[in-house]
Amino acid sequence: MKVFTTHELPQECRKMLGEELTQDPSDIINAEVIMGWPTELSNLVSRAPKVKALQTFSAGVESMDFSVLPKSVKVFSNAGAYSLPVAEHAWALILSLAKKVGKRARGESYLISGKTLLVLGAGGIGSKVARIGRDGFSMKTIGISRSFKDPEAFHERYSYREVENHLGRADVVVNALPLTKETRNFLNWERLSKLKDRSIIVNVGRGETVDREAMIKLLRERPSIRFGTDVFWRKDGKENFDDPIWELDNFTGTPHTAGADATREALDAAMVAACTNVARFLREGKADNEVRIEDYI
């Protein structure tokens, strides 16, 4: 089964997939599996009449054009491949906000240990964030999710529809939600307004899972609440890292550097994870992280 990749892969992948792996554009016509970033896969699928499966290098797949995919084609995300670096990054944002790191003016420092952490989206990233909070800072951990990658990382677990009952309990909220029809503007004004004073919110999911105008309103009206993000809202199809939200004193951020963009080590590990999933598909005809296409169209 021919496997086409849009990018050069680590040597470990070549050992795993052997002679089936190709990067030669002329081989796309015979490819049954294509590996790449979501937008690349959308553009290539029409040139691959034999394709059976698409494997993304990314964890998120919202930028893929699902409308162009044949119904028989399976899509596998790389969910979980960036869990550790992104969870570490989330904690960098949490602690920076809590301790006012990088701010010249003195400000109140918030204590984290022993407080309550609420995680939205309990996949690989959210579970790692919860583990660090639970084991490293003795926090009470609450998970809000459709499913739980590591249930034991959470003292309490609830579904999306129960989120309103628990937001007001949190000292720290970490958003690790993917962007789907269900999660767009998940943190809207109605929900954000339930947060208590002196709480910290961090977003390492997708920008559009947070209502931008509602967040800015919250930060302006309640300055004791602090917000940090690694992901930004899109403008003209691209994340706008120059968003005016930077002007607010109770905000901090990074330009989407939590995962593969920050370190080759993280990218190589993610590509190996994608190759491992493809190798399983070649052996068994099934693999992990199959995308529910109905969540996107």
The CATH topology of the largest domain turns out to be Rossmann fold
Give the helix tally: 7
State the distance separating the first and last CA atoms.
29 Å
Strand order of the largest sheet: 8-7-6-9-10-11-14
Q: Report the biggest beta sheet as strand number plus sense, adding barrel if it closes.
A: 7 strands, parallel
Task: Summarize model confidence as the mean pLDDT.
Answer: 95
The CATH architecture term of the largest domain is: 3-Layer(aba) Sandwich
CATH superfamily of the largest domain: NAD(P)-binding Rossmann-like Domain
CATH C-level class of the largest domain is Alpha Beta
Unreliable segments (pLDDT under 50, ≥5 consecutive)?
none
What is the radius of gyration?
20 Å
Strand content: 15-25%
Write down the domain tally.
2
Helix content: 25-40%
Helix/strand-derived class? alpha/beta
Query: What's the β-strand tally?
Result: 14
Order of helices and strands: EHEEHEEHEHEEEHEHEEEEH
The global form is: elongated
Task: Tell me what you see in this structure.
- This protein is of the alpha/beta class.
- The chain has two domains: 3-80 and 262-295, NAD(P)-binding Rossmann-like Domain (Rossmann fold), CATH 3.40.50.720; 83-253, Rossmann fold, CATH 3.40.50.
- The protein is 27% helix and 18% strand.
- The model has no long low-confidence stretch (mean pLDDT 95).
- The protein has helices spanning 11-17, 38-44, 83-99, 124-137, 189-192, 212-221, 264-284, and strands at residues 3-5, 21-22, 33-36, 53-56, 74-76, 116-122, 140-148, 156-158, 172-175, 200-203, 226-229, 234-235, 238-239, 251-253.
- Helix 1 (11-17) packs parallel to helix 7 and helix 3 (83-99) crosses helix 4 (124-137).
- The chain has seven helices and 14 strands.
- The chain has a seven-stranded parallel beta sheet with strand order 8-7-6-9-10-11-14, covered by helices on one side. A five-stranded parallel beta sheet has the order 2-1-3-4-5, with helices on both faces. A two-stranded antiparallel ribbon has the order 12-13.
